Amino acid sequence: MTKMKVGIIGSGNIGTDLMLKLQQTDVLELTAMIGIDPESDGLKRAKELGYKTFDNGIEGFMEQPELADILFDATSAKAHAYHSKVLRDVGKKVLDLTPAAIGPFVVPPVNLGEHMDEKNINMITCGGQATIPVVKAVSNICTVEYAEIVATISSKSAGPGTRANIDEFTETTSRGIEEIGGAKKGKAIIILNPAEPPILMRDTVYCLVEGAAMDEKAVKQSIQDMVAAVQQYVPGYRMRTEPIIDGNKVTVFLEVEGAGDYLPKYSGNLDIMTSSAVKVAEEMAKHQLKQKV
Amino acid sequence: MAEQDVIITEVALRDGSHAIGHQFTVDQVVQLSKALDDANVPYIEVAHGDGLAGSSLQYGLSKTDEMALIEAAASVCNNAKIAVLLLPGIGTVQELKQAANIGAEMARVATHVTEADVSSQHIAMAKDLGMETVGFLMMAHMAPVKKLVEQAKLMESYGADTVYVVDSAGALLPHEVKARIRALRENLQINIGFHGHNNLSLAMANTLAAIEEGATRIDGSVRCLGAGAGNTQTEVLVSVLDRLGIKTGIDLYKMMDLSEDIAAQILQKPQEITKDSLVLGYAGVYSSFLLHAQKAAKQFGVDSRDILIELGKRRVVGGQEDMIVDVAAEIVKKNTAVM
Fold first, then answer.
1. Interaxial angle between packed helices A268-292 and A126-139, expressed in degrees from 0 to 180 and rounded to the nearest 10
2. By its UniProt entry, which PANTHER family does this protein fall under (chain B) (predicted)?
3. Domains and CATH numbers, chain B
């Protein structure tokens, strides 16, 4: 089978986890790892694994742009703004794992199909990837007046970027709950928990639906189907209990255990980002290869 | 303003929000703020119990938009300054700007005791807005002194004018408060503050221990109108400090009167140390969990103390109210399995 060539920008934890995940897919072929720190673990490992590595950032890659057609950007919002422009000029597709939010938001089981031909796709936030599917599952059955999500992650899995810009998490996730999840109003809360051993990522989703009579069975079924769809690409994604329905309020407790590729299993928040991005790239690759035939 | 050795912040209109399920009305806030201002209380904190934007299904929806409460309080105060609380991860700089616009002059930016670095953005913004700025290190009993000092220094480096040791669970013992305040005093240049809860009946003792070690900013809630068993009772603190010759500038009689005539009327029942609030302090659990745990206990038919003790064991932090229902459901499951 023909594979689509992909590259990773950013040789930190996220980039390295992406690299290990990309070894397991059969529609994507990782060719290049682009970083700026030759001493980084990510670049060293990439070299050992036989990938082309660049330690002079995007400029290095631009000398051999034929290496990849889709790039994962796991750097920072600021760096991404520049990468996006440079890569757009040479017709590359970019999956943005930073909070830059230049391209449209995508959550694979919710709206991936709508953005197959986009040049730049934003992966929202970890909390968004974990909770928006559930909001969408409820809004597929009833009108969601208000959805609120609470993401609790272990302190160890929150990097300096997240910490310095924690408002971006709440603002971007709230927007995603409305735009992609279909809630009329969205709210997001993030909590860091320093307990040792580190806790798994936990997410609670609350939805207030319109009207008094909710088809409880249909809502529960819709949520279960959606959770199963996410499990297809994030095996450690699960509900902790059955959805709780109380009047017009639906509450869902979720837990995300990482695959433990490069990042430890407790950092399900990072795993769901890399897994979702790989899923998007796979679908894009299939879509593009089909068009070529 | 009268001479002050210790500067008091009255937190009933923020911490007290927890005690009454976030049901403050503009009328109550106006009455209490006016009286506090008249009694010469220098700072009055007004916000949802969980800070700006805390109104939520997770913590409880506010009956009245907190911005309306803040604006109302600011409009009736002549000397007292309005403070707001902000927990990064819940509120953002947007709400902080809004609050500053309608009269808030002090920003208290709160993080879990080990997570100070999420506050840099908000402390910097508060300074830019010209607000006096406080770093609020919550659940201070959960970290060793060395860690607390390191985190307080971060807040100092972001520009905080004051750093508070916040005993959110009312779990600290007087010697632990002393060690914490002393270490901060030795390592920081800025003001040190203390915020207590009375779950173990130690709020006053802890506050005095903090003042002895050099804390100059102290929180109190009149009539103990605060989460759990309430905070250090402001009017009692003012009396005790007066006996000790420590000046607060607050009019004692007026304070007693407003406690009796206004605060007592707001409380749905008198504040006392019930078995549940006692367990908050004993197990080291965030004081605002009280009403949520009682509700879950009822809903699931389990002992609220079992829920709180389990939450303490799991080292749950402030804001994790969703864990209460989760733990209650697990206790039911375990009990059923045993049968």
1. 70
2. 2-ISOPROPYLMALATE SYNTHASE 1, CHLOROPLASTIC-RELATED, HOMOCITRATE SYNTHASE-RELATED
3. 7-266 (3.20.20.70), 288-338 (1.10.8.60)
**Token couple for B321:** 């109210």
Angle, helices A13-22/A41-48, rounded to nearest 10 degrees? 20
> Sign (positive/negative) of CA torsion B120, B126, B127, B131?
negative
Q: Using 50, 70 and 90 to split pLDDT, how confident is the model at A151?
A: very high
How distant is the Cα of B14 from the closest Cα of chain A, in angstroms? 19
Closest by Cβ to B120, choosing from A164, A187, A249: A164
Instruction: Work out the percent of chain B whose per-residue pLDDT is above 70.
Output: 99
Average pLDDT, chain A: 94
Contacts of A166 in chain B (CB under 8 A): 88-89, 118, 121
- Looking at 3.30.360.10, 3.30.70.2740, 3.40.50.150, 3.40.640.10, the CATH number of the domain A126-266 comes to 3.30.360.10
Region A120-136 average pLDDT: 97
On whether the CB atoms of residues B71 and A202 are closer than 8 A, the answer is no
Residue numbers of A annotated as active site: 126
How far off is chain A from B240, nearest CA to CA, in Å?
37
Lowest mean pLDDT among A54-63, B1-10, B13-22, B283-292: B1-10
Which secondary-structure segment (H or E) carries A205? strand A201-209
CATH number of A4-123+272-292: 3.40.50.720
Structural domain boundaries in chain A: 4-123+272-292, 126-266
Cβ of A251 and B316 within 8 Å?
Answer: no
pLDDT of B249:
97
* Contact across the interface for A253 and B319, Cβ inside 8 Å: no
**Cα angle A178-A180-A183, degrees, rounded to a multiple of 5:** 35
DSSP state of A25: -
Q: How confident is residue A211, by pLDDT bands cut at 50, 70 and 90?
A: confident
pLDDT at position A101: 87
| Per-residue model confidence (pLDDT) at position A92 | 96
Identify the DSSP state of A210: S
How far A155 CA lies from chain B's nearest CA (Å)?
8
Report the catalytic residues of B. Answer: 18
- Closest residue of chain A to B315, computed from CA coordinates: A195
The pLDDT tens digits for B240-298 are: 999 999 999 999 999 999 999 999 999 999 999 999 999 999 999 999 999 999 999 99
Closest B-chain CA to A160 = B117
Work out the mean pLDDT of chain B and round it to a whole number. 97
Evaluate if residue B1 carries a pLDDT over 60.
no
B122 marked as binding residue? no
